[in-house]
Design a protein that fits this description.
The structure is a single chain. The chain is α+β, with helices and mostly antiparallel strands. It has one domain. Helix content is 38%, strand content 19%. The chain contains four helices and four strands; from the N terminus they run E-H-E-E-H-E-H-H. Strands 1-2-3-4 form a four-stranded antiparallel beta sheet. It is globular, with a radius of gyration of 13 Å. This is YneQ. It comes from Paenibacillus catalpae.
């Protein structure tokens, strides 16, 4: 379940994903499988080849891309989430979700 984002942020992310862009969306998150994780960053792109390449370029296994909906995405968690948000200069998301 996603928390801490607006409908307009979600809409903008979905539009970017649908256009085949690599898009980032960080939000608060509750999932009993990962009780220690409080946030997730969804890295989405409708172009699965492009998203898989992005995963490989960042040391991530494309096997874990979520393909079950019309917005394919890879979930970033924990230290890798912070590392990639820093590399992508997403400082506002790092600050907003207290990931620094």
């Amino acid at each position: 379940m996603a928390f801490g984002i607006s409908r307009s942020e979600m809409k903008a992310w979905k539009e970017s994903v649908a256009r085949g862009e690599i898009a980032f969306l960080t939000h608060y998150w509750v999932d009993p499988r990962f009780p220690e994780m409080k946030t997730v960053t969804k890295v989405g792109c409708s172009d699965l080849g492009k998203l898989a390449e992005w995963c490989r370029d960042n040391g991530l296994n494309p096997k874990y891309i979520h393909r079950r909906d019309e917005y394919p995405h890879f979930d970033l968690l924990g230290p890798k989430q912070r590392e990639i948000l820093r590399r992508e200069n997403m400082h506002s998301q790092l600050e907003r979700f207290r990931l620094l």
